[in-house]
Amino acid sequence: MKIAVAVVITVVVASVGDALNNGVARTPPMGWMAWERFRCQTDCKDWPDSCISEKLFREMADLIVKDGYKDVGYEFVTVDDCYLERERDSQMRLKPDPDRFPSGMKNLSDYIHSKGLKFGICEDFGHKTCDGYPGSYYHFEIDAQTFADWGVDMLKFDGCNSDIKDMDLGYPAMGKWLNKTGRPIVYACEWPFYQIMASKSPDYPAIAKSCNSWRNYYDIGDSWDSVLTVINIYGEDKGNFSSMAGPGNWNDPDMLVIGNFGLSYEQQRAQMALWAIMASPLMMSVDLRTIKEESKAILKNKNVIGINQDPLGIQGTRKWQKGGIQLWTRPISQDAWAFVLLNTNEAVPSKVTIHIQDIVGKGEMLAQSYQVFEVFDKVDMGIVKSTDSKRFMVNPTGVFMGMLTPTESFGESRSIFDRL
């Protein structure tokens, strides 16, 4: 059977055409996803406001528009697992649960599109999804066409209940079937994560040829320990996966848990800052009906989002860590630099002195001096020479997020910050 599957996938890869030539996700995708906050709650009798249903997704779409998230770039509303019936229909097509999605997925998609938003959905590479609903194994072509017929704009393709030996051919095959539908669909893969968990080194160049984004680690949880673990995985950058990031290709550290229950105010700012520096997709997973104003302000901070969405698309990396402090840097447009100082200590604020060359490097092509800005509140902190050092205050389990713009073209560089 495994030989037959491999033969089928090989034929598909050879015959359908090139993958990923879809022109989408030129900057990291932004939106809202159900999973971390609402999981697989299907009991709409006891949990009418939290169950996975068309009601929930319509309400989230309404609030993305009403509360200004759409205005700063959030556009996807994504249904994760547990929306399907347990069996396919007589034509082997996927079908949504009729009690929780009585209007159907096309109707829900049309509603989301009517708000000026985009519709995302989840399926699985394997025989079953992670929660036991029908997977796409043996059904790539019909599922890709079903998603296109439903008006899907992004597919998150998980990897539960599958054989990782099939993934190097199977994930590209699904991408090619998506392309063949003629509908531009962002293709978000979990391909490398499952390989890493099986002690197999991912072929990141191949993954980047087939996927618009990809996960490298376990699902994020609503806790600082979980967020910090993901940050450190990205800091280690095993396999140099950061080098694969760029327009149309993004490493995905998973959802933003800002506004839920597990992070302090400082830790919420830290996640937002690091996800921006890492050029990560910004997918909120929070109940937008009950979120606090301070969390809203973090998620909607235009300055931080502007750095995340910088058109160069270069992923930031960790330069050093010492004494519980980490320095992350990212080159952005017009020879500017964004940086984050992360304080992983939990006691008291730290005063951290860094060399400007730790951020911008060394070389004859560097600017002689830079204007320093604090990003969250857009505070001008003066001018430094490229050979100077500067001290910053960083709260425990918090961040200082800054930007350096060359003073030689200050007027032009200031316009970058005004754009953020």
What structural category do the secondary elements indicate? alpha/beta
**DSSP E strands, number:** 16
- Element-level helix/strand string: HEHHEHEHEHEHHEHEHEHHEEEEHEEEEH
The main sheet orders its strands as 7-6-5-4-3-2-1-8
Helices, by number, come to: 14
Helix percentage? 25-40%
Whole-number average pLDDT? Answer: 93
Contiguous runs where pLDDT drops below 50 for at least 5 residues = 1-8, 10-17
Q: Please indicate the percent range of residues in DSSP E strands (runs of 2 or more).
A: 15-25%
Give the oligomeric state of the chains in this entry, treating copies of one chain as homo and distinct chains as hetero: single chain
Radius of gyration from the CA trace? Answer: 22 Å
Main β sheet profile: 8 strands, parallel
Distance between the termini: 53 Å
User: What is the global morphology?
Assistant: globular
Would you kindly provide a written description of the structure presented here, covering whatever features stand out?
The chain has 420 residues and is α/β, with parallel strands linked by helices. The protein is 32% helix and 21% strand. It has 14 helices and 16 strands. The chain has helices spanning 2-16, 35-38, 54-66, 105-114, 140-150, 167-180, 191-197, 204-210, 224-236, 265-277, 293-299, 302-308, 356-360, 410-419; strands at 30-33, 76-79, 118-124, 154-158, 186-189, 213-215, 250-252, 282-284, 317-322, 325-332, 336-343, 350-355, 369-374, 379-385, 389-394, 399-406. It has an eight-stranded parallel beta sheet with strand order 7-6-5-4-3-2-1-8. Strands 9-10-11-16-13-14 form a six-stranded antiparallel beta sheet. A two-stranded antiparallel ribbon has the order 12-15. A hairpin with a 3-residue loop joins strand 10 and strand 11. Helix 1 crosses helix 6 and helix 5 packs across helix 6.
